[in-house]
């Protein structure tokens, strides 16, 4: 298919700065192509910031980073109006959300009030400051990170915020071979600043439009609905997946099929992508692991 060439260029370009992150890169591209956002839950030093910067450079987009801390204010994210004495009027000073790729680093260190400032822009692609709404650049893609180990001084993301992320994933540690390759290539590997764009924002927009044309048969849609509804009726789940989760599952499935070079989605695509789309959208009961619940439901819900 004609879209595979630019996508392959993009993946090869990212591999110039990233070592051994092929699976994570593929999932991040799924969220990007489907118009969603990605939450990376991982320990420090595994390449989350490098991935976000490299992606922005590869698509020729603007990159901004927010280092989330407890004293961060909502206006530090969205922007604010400042008084200009020369013009005797207020002027809008854009915040870091006015970017194509936004990295919200350690998002769970920001207060709930500041976290909620991201809700509107992630869903509506706009911010409202002093009653005036302003659209952010397109595409707008948020990569948020949080450390799953360190909880002191953090504010867990509420369900409404978690539901805004299409995918939740972990980069994980590299294999011994990949870590050795990383050390051996230190002198020859290029930096993010040296990375050249390999895809334009317009080309990315066109690819995203093609994703929505991937065929999803009614029987497969019924399978997705059955899978999502099963989380709401399961005894091991306190809060099941929302209807937004069902929409995200179909869009992510289409994007994954698109990346794999198919014009249609299959049950195998659903089974692969479902854990990344559904697990973070539900609250397991009794300290159970969401991953285990989704794995069990994927085994028990009938496949069309």
Automatic annotation (TrEMBL):
Which residues are in the ATPase AAA-3 domain?
37-167
Where would I find the ChlI/MoxR AAA lid domain in this sequence?
230-289
Protein name (Swiss-Prot/TrEMBL): MoxR family ATPase
Q: Which Pfam families match?
A: AAA_3 (PF07726), AAA_lid_2 (PF17863)
What organism is the protein native to? Phormidium yuhuli AB48
Q: Which CDD domains does this chain map to?
A: AAA
Which SUPFAM superfamilies does this one have? P-loop containing nucleoside triphosphate hydrolases (SSF52540)
């Amino acid at each position: 298919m004609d879209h595979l060439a630019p996508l392959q260029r993009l993946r090869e370009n990212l591999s110039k700065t990233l070592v051994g992150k092929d699976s994570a890169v593929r999932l991040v591209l799924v969220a990007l192509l489907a118009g969603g956002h990605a939450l990376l839950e991982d320990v420090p030093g595994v390449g989350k910031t490098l991935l976000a910067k490299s992606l922005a450079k590869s698509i020729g987009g603007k990159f901004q980073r927010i280092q989330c801390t407890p004293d961060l204010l909502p206006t530090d994210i969205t922007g604010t109006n400042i008084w200009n004495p020369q013009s005797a009027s207020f002027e809008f000073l854009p915040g870091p959300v006015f970017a194509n790729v936004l990295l919200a680093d350690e998002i769970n260190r920001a207060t709930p009030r500041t976290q909620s400032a991201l809700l509107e822009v992630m869903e509506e692609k706009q911010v409202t400051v002093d009653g005036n709404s302003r659209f952010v650049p397109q595409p707008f893609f948020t990569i948020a990170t949080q450390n799953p180990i360190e909880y002191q001084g953090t504010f867990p993301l509420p369900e409404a915020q978690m539901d805004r992320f299409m995918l939740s994933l972990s980069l994980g540690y590299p294999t011994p071979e990949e870590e050795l390759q990383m050390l051996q290539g230190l002198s020859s590997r290029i930096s993010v600043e040296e990375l050249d764009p390999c895809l334009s924002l317009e080309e990315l927009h066109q690819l995203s439009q093609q994703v929505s044309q991937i065929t999803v048969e009614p029987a497969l849609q019924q399978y997705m609905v059955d899978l999502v509804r099963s989380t709401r009726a399961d005894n091991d789940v306190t809060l099941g997946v929302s209807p937004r989760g069902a929409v995200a599952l179909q869009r992510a499935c289409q994007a994954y099929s698109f990346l794999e070079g198919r014009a249609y989605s299959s049950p195998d695509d659903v089974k692969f992508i479902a854990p990344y789309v559904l697990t973070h959208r539900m609250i397991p009961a009794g300290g159970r692991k969401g991953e285990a619940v989704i794995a069990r439901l994927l085994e028990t819900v009938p496949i069309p």
